[in-house]
Amino acid sequence: MGEIGYARNVFDQITEPNVYLWNAIIRGYCKHSLFGEVLEMYSEMQGNGVSPDGFTLPYVLKAWSGGGGSSVKMGFGVHGHVFRNGFESDVFVQNSIVAFYAKCGRLDKAWIVFDRLDDRSRTIVSWTSIVSGYAQNGQPLEALRIFSQMRHSDVKPDWIALVSILRTYTDINDIEQGKSIHGIVIKTGLELEPDLLIALTSMYAKCGEVLVARLLFDQMDIPNVILWNAMISGYAKNGHADEAVALFRKMIGVNARPDSITVRSCIIACAQLGSVELARWMDDYISRSDYRNDVFVNTALIDMHAKCGNVDFARRIFDHVSNKDVVLWSAMIVGYGLHGRGREAIDLFNSMKCARVEPNDVTFIGLLLACNHSGLVEEGCNYFQSMKRDHGIEPRHQHYACVVDLLSRAGFLDRAYEFIMEMPIEPGITVWGALLSACKICRNVSLGEYAAERAFSLDPFNAGHYIQLSNLYASVGKWNNVKKVRKMMSDKGLSKDLGYTSIEINGKLQAFCVGDKSHPRSKEIFAELEKLERRLKDTGFTPNTESVLHDVQNEDKEESLCNHSERLAIAFGLICTTPGTPLRITKNLRACVNCHAATKLISKLVEREIIVRDANRFHHFKDGVCSCGDYW
DNA sequence: GTAGGGTTAG
C-alpha cells in the first residue's frame, strides 16, 4: 500500500498529466482494489479536460462493479460513457461491459452486449464473464448450461474458465461432474496453475472428499493462505475437526501467516471438539495475534468457549470487546442458553437494548433456547410474541420448534398442539420432533403417535424419531407396539444411533460406547464402575428402568444401564485424575433419565464437578444437583 | 500499460 501512496505523491507533483499517466495511477489503485480512488481519479481526470482512452475504461468498469458502483444508477451511465468516448467497438472495453453487467447480476444487459460482439471479440473472456455472472448470482444450473454451450462452440476453456465453473459443482453438490473438470485438466495437459489447484482442492474439501483434497493440497510447494483455508475449513465442515486443528498447527509450525478466515475456521473446529484445554490454547494464540480485536474472531471465540463448557470464559471475552455488534451479543445470549442460564441471558438481552443494539432472529433463538432450558415458559412465550410485534422479525422454523419444545416439556401439551395448529407456515420436522420427544416424557401416547406420523412422513429415514416413539411405547409398557416400531425400522434398514461418550483427560479425548471393553485399562474401569454402583445402591439409589428399550427382566435392564457409555467415561475419569478435578464429558445423544439421576448422585459421592455436554445443551453436576434443574 | 476466476460468513 505504501508504493501506491508514493506513486500518488509523485503523480500530484506533475503539472499537466497526460492520459498515459492518468491511466498509470488509476491502474495502481485498481490493482489494490481501491475502487473509490479509481472513480475519484477518473472524475478528476475528466475535470482536468483529459478524455479517457481504451485503457482507462476497463479499470473504471471494474471499479464500478467491485466498489460502490454496483448501484443501478452507476450502471445506467456506463453505456453513455462508452458511446460518448467512441469505444463501441473496442474489444477490451466491450468485454469489460459484459463483465460489469454480469457481476452486477444484470445478465439481461450482459447478453445484449455479448450478442453484439463480433466473432473476433467474443472470446473465452466474454464467455467466462457470463458463466461466472450466473454462478455468482445463485444460478448454478444456468451457469453450467452456458458452460456446456460454450464447450460446443470453438472456444476452448482455459484455466480461469475452469476455476469459475468449479464452484457451481459444490453449489449443486455434484462432485462427480466436478471430477470431470479435474479430468479435463489432466487430459488436456493444462498447467496446474496455483489458483486452479486451489479451486479443485476447495471443491473436493467442501464436498467431503478430504483425502483427494489433501493429495492436491500436498502438491503445492508453497501453499498460500487461501489453499490452507480451503483445506482447514474443509476438514472442519466434514467432521474432521481434529485434522483441521492439526493442519492449523502445522501451518503455524512452518511460519505461514494465517488470516482471519484461517483462525475462524480453526476456532469452529475447536468448538466442535469441545476440549477445554484446546479452547484455552486457541484463546491464548488469538490473544497474542493481530486478531485479538477482530469482532468476527471474538464472536467465534465466545461460541467456542460456550460450546466447550466455559461460559464464563466466553463472558470475559464478550466484556472486553469494545464495539459490540448484534451478532456478538447474540452469540453470548446463545451461550447462556446452551448452559440453561436463562436469567443471565435475559439480563444480557436487556443490556443489549440499553446499548441500543437492535436484536435479530439469532438473538431470539438464543433467548428462546435460554427460556426453554431454564423452564421460563411465560417469559419465552412473551419473547416469541415480541419478536414480530416489537421488532418486525418473522419467526423461522427454529423459533417455532423452540416454543413447541418450551411448552410441551413444561407439560403444556395442549397449548403446544394449539400453537402448532395456528402456525402460519407448514410445521417442519423439528416442530414435530420436539412435540414427539415431549410426549415421550409426558407419556402421552395418542398425541405422540400423531406427532410421530407427521415426522415420519417428512423424514422417513431419521432413526431418532422411531426410537422416540418406541421409547414412548416402552414407557407405558406397550411392548407389542415397541416391536412393531422396531420392525418398521429394520424394514427401512435403520438402526439406532450408537451412543458414545468422550472424556477429556490431559487435553486428550477418549471415547467410549455402551459396554465398551476395548480400552487398555478396561479392567480397572469396570472395577471402578462396580465400586460406584455399590455406593449408589448404598445410598438407596434405584435405577429408573424405563429408559431401557427392550422388554427384558429388570435385572438385565439395570445391567445395561450401568454400562451406558457415560458411566464408563466417568469411571475412567475418576481413576486417572487427581481427586477434586472436574470431569468434562461430551456425548452424542441426549442425557438419559437414569444416567442423569445417577450422575447427580455421583457428583456428590465422589465430590467432583461433572460437566456434560449432550446433543442439545450443557449439564453442570455438583453436590448432587444439576444446573438444568432436571429440566432438559 | 487494457477484459474473465478463487478462500469465509457468527
State the gist of this model:
With 632 residues, the protein is mainly alpha-helical.
End-to-end distance? 55 Å
Secondary structure category: mainly alpha
The residue fraction in helices comes out at 55-70%
Give the strand order, joined by hyphens, for the main sheet: 2-1-3-4-5-6
Which band does the percent of strand residues land in?
A: under 5%
Domain DYW: 540-632
Keywords: Repeat
Protein name: DYW domain-containing protein
GO molecular function: RNA binding; zinc ion binding
Observed structural traits:
632 residues; mainly alpha; Serine Threonine Protein Phosphatase 5, Tetratricopeptide repeat; six-stranded mixed beta sheet; DNA-binding; TPR-like_helical_dom_sf; RNA binding
Structural notes for this entry:
By secondary structure, this protein is mainly alpha-helical. Among the domains are: 1-122, Tetratricopeptide repeat domain (Serine Threonine Protein Phosphatase 5, Tetratricopeptide repeat, Alpha Horseshoe), CATH 1.25.40; 500-626, no CATH class. Helix content is 66%, strand content 4%. The chain is built from 33 helices and six strands. The protein has helices spanning 2-13, 19-31, 35-47, 56-66, 72-84, 91-103, 107-116, 124-136, 140-152, 159-171, 175-187, 194-206, 210-219, 225-237, 241-253, 260-273, 276-287, 295-307, 311-320, 326-338, 342-354, 361-374, 377-391, 397-409, 413-421, 429-442, 445-458, 463-475, 479-491, 522-538, 554-562, 565-576, 593-605; strands at 500-505, 508-513, 583-587, 610-613, 618-622, 625-626. The chain has a six-stranded mixed beta sheet, with helices on one face. Strand 4 and strand 5 form a beta hairpin. The longest helix is centred in the last third of the chain and has 17 residues, at 522-538. The chain starts with a helix and ends in a 6-residue tail after the last strand. The model has no long low-confidence stretch (mean pLDDT 86). The chain binds one DNA strand of 10 nucleotides through helix 2, helix 4, helix 6, helix 8 and helix 10. PPR repeats lie at residues 18-52, 123-157, 224-258, 325-359. Pfam families: DYW_deaminase (PF14432), E_motif (PF20431), Eplus_motif (PF20430), PPR (PF01535), PPR_2 (PF13041). InterPro entries: DYW_dom, E2_motif, E_motif, PPR_At4g14850-like_plant, PPR_rpt, TPR-like_helical_dom_sf.
